[in-house]
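Comment on the following before class.
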Amino acid sequence: MADTETALKDAMTSIEGAIGVALVDYTSGMALGTLGGGKDLDLTVAAAGNTDVVRAKARTMEMLGLKDEIEDILITLGGQYHLIRLLRGRGTSGLFLYLALDRGRANLAMARHQLKAIENGLEV
C-alpha cells in the first residue's frame, strides 16, 4: 500500500505526459497533497474548481435518478487532458485524484489504467 506522497510521485513518474497531480477532498475542496503543476497550473486552485465539477455531476445524476457511481470525469482542452478519478477504496470516500496531462505526450487510455492502479494501491 502506498501513502499519498508515494502515490503522487508514482503518478508523476509512471504516467507519460503528467503535468501535475493532486489528491483532493471533495467535501472541503482542499488538496491533501499535490505534485507538479507550476505557474500555469496552480493545483490548489484546480483542486477547489474540480470539486465544484464533481459536486455538480453528482447533483445532476441525483436529479436524473441515476443509481450509478462516477468512475472518472474527463475534461479535454486544446493542449491538455484533465482527469478526475473518484476513489472508492477503504478510507478514501469523499476523495478524488486529479491528473493534468500534456495532450501531445499522453496516452489517455494508459493514463486512466495507471491512475486506477495507483488508486488501488493508495492507503490514506
Remarks:
- The longest helix spans residues 43-64.
